[in-house]
Amino acid sequence: MQNPVAKVAVVGSGISGSVCAATLARNGISVTLFDSARGPGGRMSQRREISEDGRELLFDHGAPYFTVTNPDVLSVVTEWESRGLVAEWKSNFGSFDCFTNKFVNTEHQERESKKYVGVPGMNSICKALCHEPGVDSKFNMGIGKFEWLEHENLWSLIGLDGQHLGHFKGVVASDKNIALPRFTAITGQPPPLDLSLAPELVKLHDIPIYPCFALMLAFNEPLSLVPAKGLSFANSKVLSRAQCESSKPGRSSTSERWVLHSTTEYAKDVIAQSGLEKPSKETLSKVGNEMLQEFLSTGLSIPQPFFMKAHRWGSAFPAASIAKEEKCVWSEKKKLAICGDFCLSPNVEGAILSGLAAASKLKGLISTLYYNL
């Protein structure tokens, strides 16, 4: 029987943190995962809404799908597929030019890279990984401070409410905001992680990000004049892409559901006016109406939706990669890893690779991580 190995804290249950936590647990390391949200997923989350007439509506309002090119990631995804956690989204995709009001480059799935989705939602992958044996997941629990205990060679984690959450031999963080001034702008509290704790953390300083708004729509009738289930928009100042949620495998088709994503420029303009704080209902309503009007202006006879709700992703996409070679930021002395799509590439595949890299760093120290608590 393998000896129990010291606890590691993983902060963040998005795809990067979830992959890291599950990989560590499979290698005999006891993991406690913390997330301030109600459930796992991060930008892989699935949103559950109830319409006025009581219908349940589910939306992948973050990452709509992902593709795979790296053989290590393909191996992981193939295993997920065998467990029924992911499936290929076989549909046709295209681009709509808002200047000419015409579809261009509409192609069938077999001509493109495979597009994978979680089943029955994008967050299904993270849900499964967060409940692997050896992973103790704690939600609705934000971290207020990462404290390094020099003489004990341990990390002490303190909750946002001041509660002591435990001592840990190693820490993995998958939220870039925990060490940035952006955390203070959003929460009013100082960043939980002090960049001066390790020289390697200087890479985290002021990572540029792209914001985005998502608009969730539900229709009583199919959008029959839209020839593709996934769209990118050209020459639009408001919309960047749209996808039909109800066309994905494992989804309910009792209503037609779409998610629209804004352009970065549009989101920046809104945030410049409203600030980084949680957007008000009025702001989200205004954004929703403007995005819907842009969608309706395509001239495709799109009906009025019976449900509409906007969501802001304040730090949706990293605008730079800070650890392309290492795939994660790593302090061996402190046994601290920072992982996420901002380390390698701004997509799901990049986040998976970064999570695997962070787990590998701590696995390499397995002989020094036996329990002594």
UniProtKB/TrEMBL annotation:
<dbReference type="InterPro" id="IPR036188">
    <property type="entry name" value="FAD/NAD-bd_sf"/>
</dbReference>
<dbReference type="Pfam" id="PF13450">
    <property type="entry name" value="NAD_binding_8"/>
</dbReference>
<protein>
    <submittedName>
        <fullName>Renalase</fullName>
    </submittedName>
</protein>
